[in-house]
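dumping this here before i forget
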Amino acid sequence: MNGPAREGGGPDLRWQWLVLLLVLGAIVYLLSPVLMPFAVAALFAYLADPVVDRLERFAGRRLAVALVFLVVTIVVVAVLLILVPFVERQIGNFLTQLPVWVDWFQTRATPWLETRFGISPDVLDTQRIIGALQANWKEAGGFAASALAHVSKSGLTIIGWVLNLVMIPVVAFYLLRDWDVLVQRIHVMIPRSIEPVVSRLAHESDEVLGAFLRGQMSVMVALGVFYGVGLWLVGVSVGPLIGMIAGLISFVPYLGAITGVVMGVIAALVQYQDWGHVLLVLGVFAVGQTLEGYVLVPRLVGEKIGLHPVAVIFAVLAGGELFGFLGVLLALPVTSVVVVVLRYLYRRYTQSELYTTRAEPVIVVPAVGGRVAAAPAGQVAPAPHPPGP
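structure:
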């Protein structure tokens, strides 16, 4: 059958493409341990290319790339100089208040849970829980120490880490400098029979990836700052740390808000032991969720991604299981592209004969002698002649 159904080529060509994709997937899986710096560099080049394209109008490509790298380096160094001491102080503050949290749990939370839900105090024995945590922590510490000693003895491992850190900016520089040329070469290599479809899918994927990578990261930073400042204004001593954690994991819908609410409510109860500050904490996250749903996401991300929360969680877990940290890093971008392809396949399916063809209804007409005759709708089947004498 000729026509639109052969847009991507004949059946043999489609099987060849399928085999090619499987081979490429196997190669990526086998090379995943060494692909980390290249994947990070490619993500950075993809994100920075629009900025370089704008600067290229006023300067050459090399100068534009150098300016972008200079600004990024200054920002990263400044953030590290500010963020690392801040996080260290917040963690120290949390560890200082940890005995107060344990005491609050023993004197208030445990009796309340026992009265309301009938939970045995033995289950909530904090001393036993702390003892178990300390034992496991010591075991984990011993394992970590032995692993660190092993790693420190292995010069190749340290050299590999250093090389990866050095390779990321180097590879990113060359990818960013030649990004337009590489994209054009890939476009030229696409078979002309499928070039229109691939170009359309690439354009849609670029919109989705841009919306996610640029928009969602902006949303995460904005939410982290808002939650941290809001909890700090409420008076929660570890509020900035809680806000930072809630913002960083907000790429999974509702997970960041739920985690932040639980941690913020517990911190407020332990610190102030009243419900007024709890209501203020809930108000901070309620306003944050309103801003996320009605301001940040529509303006920065849009409605082009369409990833279900379950799909987000599954993508992150599956990527981590298959490819480790590289899989976690690329899980959501790859899933966004897969969503674009699935939308295209859905459109093709709804336009295919398999979906649009309707079977003609059949009218069954009783006939003489107990036999029946069938005919399509709009046409009555003639009754058979009665048997002769």
